[in-house]
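Annual report, structural modelling task.

Input specification for the flavin-adenine dinucleotide complex:
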Amino acid sequence: MKISNILKSREITVSCELFPPKEGAVLGNVQKVVKEIARLNPSFMSITYGAGGAGSHNTTQIAHEIQNINGITALAHLTCIGSKKDDIIRTLKELKDKNIENILALRGDLPQNKPLLHGDYKYASELTEEIHKNGDFCVGGACYPEGHPESANLQKDIEYLKVKVESGCSFLTTQMFFDNNILYNFMFRLLKNGVDVPVIAGIMPITNAKQVERIFKLSGTALPPRFKAIVDRFADNPDAMKQAGIAYATEQIIDLIANGINHMHIYTMNKPDIAKNIMGNLSEIFK
Ligand code: FAD
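The model returned the following structure:
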């Protein structure tokens, strides 16, 4: 089913994100993770794509596992960086052959400590156009409630986001955020700028203090004092940190749904127990 139709037909949706094994690694562990998360019956499951083509075959293979073996709609990520037109067309054909009809079109993370391979697409909007030329896909894009770290300011980023939506994105998934007011402000600005496709809120359960520094460096996301206090207090107690992180993510979702944001995407990071805990906490709300 196309994700645009899932978002239209269900009042509240919850999706989960996984990452594929590295190229050449065995699929076994991730297949197990897919099965466990699929048992929770999310609205759809997404699978990331290593920028520069690394792991692209595994993305298609795991999307196939999600949808054709476990019966959950799959969303395959696809990135521009380092991708030549031929690679993209070949990947689109592989996805089509496996009946995968949903793609998240991304520019991709810039490689760290490696030269940038030049591909045929600079921005996600160019990739979105290419995907539509090659099949009847439902395409989504990424958005950044605090502005993309490379953009001059949030207003400029929203103007480019509008171009991306006009190139054919029918929904957007947000970067993680830890203060819901940031998302409410962003939603207001999107409407003011004429961006009115459904927005799925990206929720990252922080369950390990070591994640914190890396994540905040990568995403540029603000760390609210309430969240900082949790990390400071429980960093040395992994079980307590995990419990507190799950509780924080749960509360974030309750507040979002109470305020009319109905579509959630949980960055589950291949940890079924975290998805299980959050979805268990919200079983009556996600019914
Ligand atoms: P774009 O939409 O292309 O924007 C990139 C930058 O260019 C922004 O600053 C934007 O303002 C600017 N821009 C856009 N269009 C123009 C234009 N026409 N002219 C000038 N400037 C412009 N990375 C991966 O490698 N693999 C993944 O699977 C993956 N999944 C992700 C999933 C989600 C939900 C999110 C939020 C991010 C994901 N990322 C992934 C990371 C993402 O690739 C990076 O954040 C990347 O830096 C930006 O990608 P984008 O698609 O938003 O880029």
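The first strand starts at residue 13 and ends at 18.
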